[in-house]
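Narrative of activities, Objective 1.

The group set out to show that a structural description can be obtained from nothing but a protein's sequence at a throughput compatible with the screening campaign. Below is one input-output pair from the validation batch, recorded exactly as produced.
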Amino acid sequence: MKKLKIVFNNNNKKQELLYNTVLSPVSERWIKKIRHLSKIKHSPIETTGTSFAKDIERIHREFCEFARIEYKIIDYNEQQSLNLLHELYVSNHNRLSKFKNNDIVYNFHNAIHELEDQKIGVNFFVGWGTKEGPLTEKFMCNEFYTKSILKNNIYLPWSELGKTPMIYYRDKEVSNINRLCELVKPHLTLRAKFTIALKDFTMIDFPTGFKEWFDPFKQTWLDHYKIKDWRIQDEYSGVLLAEPEDRTIDIKQILKEYPIFHSIELV
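Output recorded for this entry:
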């Protein structure tokens, strides 16, 4: 078992927390990434604390300018409009990811999801974005998803270029199996990005409407990605990576006094 030290700060005052890793094929790979990335500054784009949604119109304009595509005025309160923005991001991502100084691309993506996300405040995220480079790898992670989310624990979250089945359904995307296989993805990519649960999260069964909608497409989609099933934990959970050495801590309370993530390292 390896230990992690996570540091939060506020005006040069620091709060250090120790965690014990929970070993699995996923966590062993994640630990190797952290060993390298602990010396590299995390990305503010992928770390909780920076809000993009409030500037969505400006970010949308700047994204279009950077991508050299036409900017169109939309209603950012309509989910259908956000679906179009997400499609705009996906269709241009591979091309723009090769450009230098492309933070606006990821700011744009984060702003879209921040507007859509109904679980803001449930988790604290930390990531390195493009700084991960070759440390990002393909690995089927869903098999190792835990059945429960407990506050203060560290988890590996789903982080694909696309949507989960439930989010796709919630966003009223087109009911087409080809589009489904293109945009809806299980957890295929093992990144260093991690999340700390700020409260316990109870997983409830999928709503009947979703089950009825997904059923005609489900087996084809599962076969496409060579997975056995799509369970409740696949949609809402993650892979348990580490637990706090002191189980009495409360990350949510600590963040009120030390709101800035500073670093993580193996000790």
